[in-house]
Amino acid sequence: MSLYLLIAAGYLLGSIPFGVILTRLFGAGDLRQIGSGNIGATNVLRTGRKGLAAATLILDGAKGAVAVLLARHFVPELGEHAAMIAGAAAMIGHCYPVWLKFRGGKGVATLLGLAFALGWPIGLIFAIVWLAAVLLLRISSLGGMLGAVSAPIAALALGHPIYAIGLAGLAVIVLWRHRENIARLRAGTEPRIGRSKDADKGAGRA
Question: Alpha helices of 47-139 — where are they, by DSSP H?
Fold first, then answer.
């Protein structure tokens, strides 16, 4: 029963749309009507409010981390299983929040947060891959996807097979949520950081 309650709590925690709440609270408009319509930090950045974007990133990550920590505190006897399940519930809540008709974010920040809570080396590898890919390739979506895929590999290499299986499943969700980005990457039209969409379209045609 405790595990079921944690799953519910994790889902509800993950479903809190901090991006939507913050942009409305600080007069930046309805995030779902801005840019891509996504509720994550990348779209918040399109409002021009860097502070709100940073706060959204931190809070979305915290949702996954808190869910893992709650599981370890309340169901310690289930160990890695409970932590992984609660973290996964939080990420699913973020991606498919009941309050927004199950139209949520893409899950990268929440996955990063829960990865750090599962094991800081896993989260660190995730963060390094994400940031390195963004800095080198200048494509935010690709950096997030590569970071997500690196998490289960890191968990397996560090001797956490249960985490590796769970993180692999969540990485698949991240890839699914980025399916439109993947289509644009294949077409060469995915926007790059610091470049206009028109410039990227021209590069794609070249």
Answer: 50-74, 79-95, 108-118, 120-137
Total domain count for the chain?
A: 1
Q: Tell me the residue range of the domain where 28 lies.
A: 2-205
Model pLDDT for residues 132-150, shown as the tens digit of each residue? 999 999 998 999 999 999 9
- Hey, is 23 helix, strand or coil? helix
Share of the chain above pLDDT 70, in %: 93
Angle at 34 between CA 32 and CA 36, to 5 degrees: 80
CA gap 150, 174 in Å, rounded = 12
Distance separating alpha carbons of residues 107 and 151, to the nearest angstrom = 13
For residue 7, how many other CB atoms are within 10 A of its CB? 20
Amino acid of residue 80: E
